[in-house]
Amino acid sequence: MEETFVRLLEAVKEDNAGLFSQLIDQKKALLSVSFGRFPLLSLCYLYRSTKILRGYEKILSQITQFSPAEEDFLSYKKFRSYAGRCMRLYRKGRFIYPLEMLAVLNETYYLNKVYPYFNKPAGTAEHLEKIYAVLRGKHIKADEKSILLPRNPLRPRQKLLVAAALMLSAILIFVSAYAMDNIRFLTGEGTEKNPYRIAGEVQLIRALEDSFSYCVLTKDITLTQKWTAVDFKGTLDGGGHTIYAEGHTSEGFFKTMSGTIKNTSFDFFVSENVAVPLLAAQNIGTMTGLDVNVKGEGTTEIATALLLIQNAGTLSDISLDIQCDADIHSNSSLFLYQNQGTLSGVTARVLGNFREESAAEVLYFSSLVYQNTGILSDSTLYCEATYMGNADGDAYFAGFAAINSGKIERCETSEGSFIRTDTVDIAGIITTNEATGTLSACINRAEIAQTTSSDQWSPNAAGIVTSNSGAVTDCVNAGVLRAEQKAPSGNKNLIAFAAGICAENIGILSDCQNTGNVFVLAEHYEIYAGGISGINRATLAKSKNSADVYGYSGDRNAYVGGIAGYNTSNSRITGSGSFGLISLEYNSEVQNGYLFAGGIAGGNYGGIHSCFACCTFAYTLNGAGTLRVGGISGLNYGEYSYFTNSVYLDSEDNYYLMQPNLSFGIASIYYQKFTQSIFDEGNNVGATAAETLEEIKSTEVYWE
Amino acid sequence: MKRDSFKLSFYLILSAVVLFDAGYLAFLGIQISQIKIGAAVLYPFFRPLTLAALAVNAALAGYTLLYLMVRKK
């Protein structure tokens, strides 16, 4: 082979465009060289000489006449490896034209592209058909202008990639569409059917700040950062889960709650002064099914209420567990300061030691509500409380409410409860029932005891209400009551008094019962002890005492009665009955105290009508006192008539069970005759002695 | 002979989409787990991103089908 041909072949094999150009420039005729059956362009395709093709493909493709050169064996061998059985097409020395070379090399795409522009010697179309038939098993159609080629099958790697692409896109389309459509079920939409789901603090903040219409807790939540109180008007369903405030809600959890909170537990911790209630400033919505726990460390100061200032909405089914010690320096309560709405179904457990460090004014404090002008009903309180006052000003403590001018019904203190104070007056249910207030069907089972050594204090304990100006009906006291004054010196203006239902009644008291023993003890103070009322200044009707009433006076007057210790003028006790033991003890060798005990009233300045007393009496008189014990009253005030020269006693239709230590139904009479005060022996005016209980039971006044 | 640029672009697009999808799936997993444990709320770009994932993969599917139809013979 000529040297030039060898170099030309080498340039093609190595795709050496420079050498190729140099050779062609020297001799243009080289472009038409064919190495045996391989025209120059076919060799370029065979060796994929892309650089040479870029410059010379167009010229080479138009060459129809070839000048022969010796065939390169290696090229032949390479071609044969592609051509296989198609080699027979070229046995007779036919040129392997460029288009046929492309077909052999399976460059179908390129063949299709260049076919219209290339020179097509005779037989090219037939050869192409044969090549595709033999090598690819495909039938193609070719003519002068065009060629119809089948698509090459995908290679395995391509197949894999295409399948992967399709699968990936299908999966991701499904996943993203599913996520787009279903993320709302994961987060919720804030609607009633699909509430916003809260599983953490961040989501809780978002829900409350955005006031989602409907939210539900899916997990217990522990606050980890300072909580900013929010107004909330949506619906939060706790699903029984707990929000652990962990002391982060010093500014309250809600400001104004005008929506609905239900089935949620709150766990609060207090270690400092509570200036703002922990739960909410105001509720004008509905809170129901709440379980609120408050634990305190150290002594807390409560400004208004520990949990909620004002309720003008509905609070129901609330469980409270409050354990804290507090310094009480203003009117306040543990749960709610002011109830103007409905508060019902509260189950409270209060364990606390309270004290009054510095307050000098009148102070009211309550376990549940400071002031009720709405409805408080169907609630239960278990209370283990002690409250030490400072005796600088009056102080009051009550289980349910301090001041009531609304309606309180079916509220109970639980068995085992106790409230113990020193210079703080106490009642099991409320302190003051105002003229518009009603209190009905309440029960006190708590032990209530006030023991003081302050000589400036009148101890005062009541099972239901300390002072009643409204209506108290159908209430029951079953707790033991004790008021004890132990001051070493006396104050004649002060008294000690206690009663099963009401310490001092200025309103209506009816259909009440006492089964808890009443104890009033004072060394140097007057005492008033009554099964129902300590002092009755108005109406006391259809009530019954079946417990013991005990009075001890060191050296002062004492009034002990089965129904009332003292029944004042213009007041009336009607239709009431008393059982149990009426006891009186006096212990002074010096003072001449007056001691009065009666089955209905110790002292009666008003009226006693249609009552019955089935009491037993016990008394111990050590010293110089004057003791009068009557089946109905120990002392009865009478009106002297100048015209008839007789004393009128407002006592009618009363019955008492005769006892060996009784002389009269009315043990003594006190009246004014002109300017003279007369203390006279008793009689049975309006009081009938019965020998047996059956006799009393047979009367019209008796009832079970 | 020129290289098959259509095939090349298909490969490049497929690689880009695979990377994007991997990132999206990671984001989706993190977002869902954070919502489930309550550590985060739904990110504001969740929906745009998910919509983008949907569109990108739909485009990939379309491009793959196009590739199959008009690829080199």
How would you characterize the overall build of this protein?
The complex is a heterodimer of chains A (704) and B (73). With 704 residues, chain A is an alpha/beta fold. In chain A, 18% of the residues lie in helices and 43% in strands. Among the domains of chain A are: 3-148, no CATH class; 453-704, Pectate Lyase C-like. Chain A contains eleven helices and 66 strands. In chain A, α3 (40-46) packs antiparallel against α4 and α6 (98-104) runs parallel beside α8. Chain B is an all-alpha fold. The two termini of chain B are 14 Å apart. Chains A and B meet through α7, α9 and α10 of A and α1 and α2 of B.
Strand proportion of chain A, as a percent range, falls in 35-45%
Global morphology of chain B: elongated
Give the mean pLDDT of chain B: 88
Rg for CA atoms of chain B: 17 Å
Give a brief outline of the structure.
The complex is a heterodimer of chains A (704) and B (73). Chain A is an alpha/beta fold and 704 residues long.
Which features characterize this protein?
heterodimer; A: 26-stranded parallel sheet; 66 strands; B: 73 residues; mainly alpha; elongated
Write the layout of secondary structure elements.
The complex is a heterodimer of chains A (704) and B (73).
Chain A: H1 3-14, H2 17-26, E1 33-35, E2 38-39, H3 40-46, H4 50-61, E3 67-69, H5 73-83, H6 98-104, H7 108-114, H8 124-136, E4 141-142, E5 147-148, H9 156-187, E6 196-198, H10 201-209, E7 214-217, E8 221-222, E9 230-232, E10 235-237, E11 242-244, E12 254-257, E13 260-262, E14 265-270, E15 280-283, E16 286-301, E17 308-311, E18 314-327, E19 332-333, E20 336-339, E21 342-355, E22 363-366, E23 369-372, E24 375-388, E25 395-398, E26 401-404, E27 407-413, E28 418-421, E29 425-427, E30 430-433, E31 438-440, E32 443-444, E33 447-452, E34 460-462, E35 465-468, E36 471-473, E37 476-477, E38 481-485, E39 495-499, E40 502-505, E41 508-510, E42 513-514, E43 518-522, E44 526-530, E45 533-536, E46 539-541, E47 544-545, E48 549-553, E49 558-561, E50 564-567, E51 572-574, E52 577-578, E53 581-588, E54 594-598, E55 601-604, E56 607-609, E57 612-613, E58 616-623, E59 626-630, E60 633-641, E61 646-648, E62 651-652, E63 654-657, E64 666-673, E65 676-683, E66 687-690, H11 693-697
Parallel strand pairs in A: 1-3, 6-7, 7-10, 8-11, 9-12, 10-13, 11-14, 12-15, 13-16, 14-16, 15-17, 16-18, 17-20, 18-21, 19-22, 20-23, 21-24, 22-25, 23-26, 24-27, 24-28, 25-29, 26-30, 27-31, 28-33, 29-34, 30-35, 31-36, 32-37, 33-38, 34-39, 35-40, 36-41, 37-42, 38-43, 39-44, 40-45, 41-46, 42-47, 43-48, ...
Antiparallel strand pairs in A: 1-2, 4-5, 60-61, 64-65
Helix pairs in contact in A: 1-2, 3-4, 3-6, 6-8
Chain B: H1 5-37, H2 46-70
Helix pairs in contact in B: 1-2
